[in-house]
Amino acid sequence: MTAPRTVLLTGAAGGIGTLMRELLPPYGHELRLLDAVPVPGAPDAIVADLADRAALREAVRGVDAVVHLAGISLESDFDRIVAANVTGLHHLYEAVREEGVRRVVFASSNHAVGFTPLPREGEPLLPADVPHRPDTFYGLSKCFGEDLAQLYWDRHGVETVSLRIGSCYPAPTTVRMLSLWLSPGDCARLLHASLTAGSVGHTVAYGSSANTRLRWDLSTARALGYAPQDDAEVFAAELLAEQGPLPEDSPDALYLGGRFCGDPPPPSR
Predict the structure, then answer these.
(1) pTM for this one?
(2) Catalytic residue, candidates 27, 93, 138, 169
(3) Superfamily of domain 6-261
């Protein structure tokens, strides 16, 4: 697949979207921006909610692909999650189908499989085909998103790469993130690979850097052409000195979703 000329970036004012507005264009992608709120420094950005089906159809018209980061990215009450991450996502896929867009890159999450036990030392890394085991309503909505992507591939031929993104920040902020961290630079590399790989059907891949403490298998991401360059280990000594190692019996040490597998889960990442 040749590099898309125009990519709709939803959630362009969010944390990852803000980073990708600067990092994706050097790969040759012309970005059309969309968010429910104005995008700072981008007066031409589309301001529209995922509930506005007409606006979504207009937004995707003429683009070559969509990178979908919009929606609720934290745990919330069920009705809000459904409105944005379930109904809103369906609206986006309908717009994509109606306008004949070739590919979607969907920001899924490790929380879609959060209750999956972490492998112990010496055990195989977690493959991308582990069953859904969401740890929150947010994680449940990402399970729906992956299944919706599969449906639209099987029924309508819309290709999707569903990326189970770990923690994308300029630097990891917790010991847990040492295994899940996705550097902004690697995030741009992963999105570019997902946009330009050959036929992908519906591919599920984990999204992290090449971390020394990696707990999941990046082989499906690498098969897309992703070549991560960063490693959270450069931050390990400082974080461990500040926070100490994870207690062996803590959710952070036992489950992929970490503390979100506690009762009740916290309201943010």
Answers:
(1) 0.95
(2) 138
(3) NAD(P)-binding Rossmann-like Domain (3.40.50.720)
